[in-house]
Design a protein that fits this description.
The mean pLDDT is 97. The protein is globular. It is built from 17 helices and seven strands. It folds into three domains: 33 residues, no CATH class; 270 residues, Alpha-Beta Barrel (TIM Barrel), CATH 3.20.20.140; 94 residues, no CATH class. Helix 1 packs antiparallel against helix 2, helix 3 runs parallel beside helix 4 and helix 7 crosses helix 9. The chain has 441 residues and is of the alpha/beta class. The chain has a seven-stranded mixed sheet with strand order 1-2-3-4-5-6-7.
């Protein structure tokens, strides 16, 4: 029964997801499901099916699995939308899971216009995040910006599909019928497009030799080892060969393709979120100039740094990847940036949670746990009383970022999900001590 219910949590029907979570909650309350005491592992970077989750996880499904796995804090991040926020927050509170939500997008950084940052082959373009948003409904004056993020991405994908259709003919997609049906709220990504092409190829050629011959010819590689009809290697190869740099569908972005980092950070701050610079692996020209890069990011409002730990080390090897990871985190800590991480789960094979028991990541667990508690505390404070990490209240009471980090970590560690509403009604006259008193600290 549990497996069936877990499958229903991924339904595109929101009412069905809500009913299913209610049933699971009832099983917990009846003592028929035992959940572990939350531990110390965290994942603050999980994409849901509102952008692309390779396992099809809804916000409710991720909350359920995170609670079932005993995560200390969990967080969703979707491309260009906040569609997961309300559902994930409700699920977290029902399951007594500490949670938070944000979005990821791409921005232009004029100071790095000639240097690649973290978007391969694209100088000046950077993946960027806002975390700890208090509400999915952003202020009226910011709604146009949020809408434009999604619309720009969808227009780019539609245009890309036209170009790829011409190359992959007779395998051609109808964007509305073949792509948008793969996601519940019309926010398709390149990965949805790849999956749709895999589906359409099977419709056109079946699953035999004709399919293998088609993909081998179009992708310029032997398709037999790619896991036909829709395995991970096939999907990644479709994306690399047709949509990324050098592919028939690719168009090089420029200064007008994405909003500037400074503009995006103003939007995030106005919505009550925490602007977050994302770090890839330290190998690009831009990331090798990490001090300059962090100066620019922080100068435009960034207060946090996101990394993807699992892609930045090889178990048992002390190579340049792990050295770069430790260096980036050390530099971020010296600047009192909040450090967060997660596994994304928007590509096949990615883990549910990082292996923080590994020799490479175990020393970094306290850093990621601290960051997760800070973002959780911020999102709750901002939602219930407007006194979050980036608020005027926080700047007034904590002269240094290190003091602010210490307070919000302490609050996030102590506060339990069923105490969150205790913070409602606090005013700017509240002292940090009075805030902690509200959660019995």
């Amino acid at each position: 029964m549990i497996e069936e219910l877990e499958q229903q949590l991924d339904s595109f029907n929101s009412a069905e997801r809500e009913r299913t979570l209610e049933v699971l909650s009832g099983e917990i309350e009846a003592g028929r499901i035992d959940l572990p005491t939350p531990g110390e592992f965290v994942n603050l970077h999980c994409h849901t099916f509102f952008s692309y989750n390779t396992y099809g996880y809804s916000p409710s499904k991720f909350a359920w699995l995170a609670r079932k796995a005993g995560l200390a804090v969990a967080g969703t991040v979707d491309f260009d939308v906040l569609d997961a926020l309300d559902e994930f927050g409700q699920a977290c509170r029902r399951l007594r899971l500490k949670g938070c939500s944000g979005l990821e997008t791409r921005v232009y950084v004029p100071e790095f216009s000639t240097r690649v940052i973290n978007s391969p082959g694209e100088p000046g373009i950077s993946y960027h995040m806002g975390v700890g948003f208090p509400h999915a409904q952003v202020p009226v004056e910011q709604q146009g910006f949020l809408h434009s993020l999604k619309e720009t991405a969808q227009r780019r994908n539609r245009d890309l599909t036209v170009r790829v259709n011409a190359y992959l003919s007779p395998v051609e997609l109808d964007y509305e019928g073949d792509v948008l049906t793969l996601t519940p709220a019309g926010n398709a990504t390149e990965r949805h497009v790849c999956l749709a092409y895999a589906h359409k190829a099977v419709e056109t050629f079946g699953e035999g030799d004709a399919l293998t011959e088609f993909w081998s010819a179009k992708l310029g590689v032997d398709a037999k080892p790619l896991g036909l009809p829709e395995g991970r290697d096939l999907l990644n190869t479709i994306r690399a060969k047709t949509m990324k740099r050098g592919g028939v569908g690719y168009v090089q972005p420029d200064s007008g393709s994405f909003p500037q980092m400074a503009e995006t950070n103003r939007f995030i701050l106005a919505c009550g979120g925490m602007p977050t610079h994302t770090w890839l692996d330290g190998a690009s020209d831009g990331e090798r100039a990490i001090e300059e890069l962090l100066d620019v990011a922080m100068g435009t409002g960034a207060v946090a740094l996101n990394v993807i730990p699992d892609r930045n080390y090889t178990p048992g090897r002390q190579d340049q990847k792990i050295k770069n990871l430790y260096d980036a985190i050390e530099r971020a800590q010296k600047r009192d940036l909040v450090v967060i991480g997660g596994t994304e789960m928007n590509s096949p094979g990615q883990k549910f949670v990082d292996d923080f028991d590994s020799a490479e990541l175990a020393p970094l667990l306290p850093v990621f746990l601290k960051g997760a508690y800070i973002v959780y505390a911020h999102s709750v404070m901002q939602r219930h009383c407007g006194l979050g990490y980036t608020s005027e209240w926080a700047r007034t009471h904590f002269g240094e970022a290190a003091e602010r980090n210490s307070f919000f970590e302490r609050l996030g560690r102590s506060m339990q999900p069923d105490q969150e509403t205790n913070l409602a009604g606090l005013s700017e006259a509240a002292t940090p001590g009075e805030v902690l008193d509200q959660v019995g600290e």
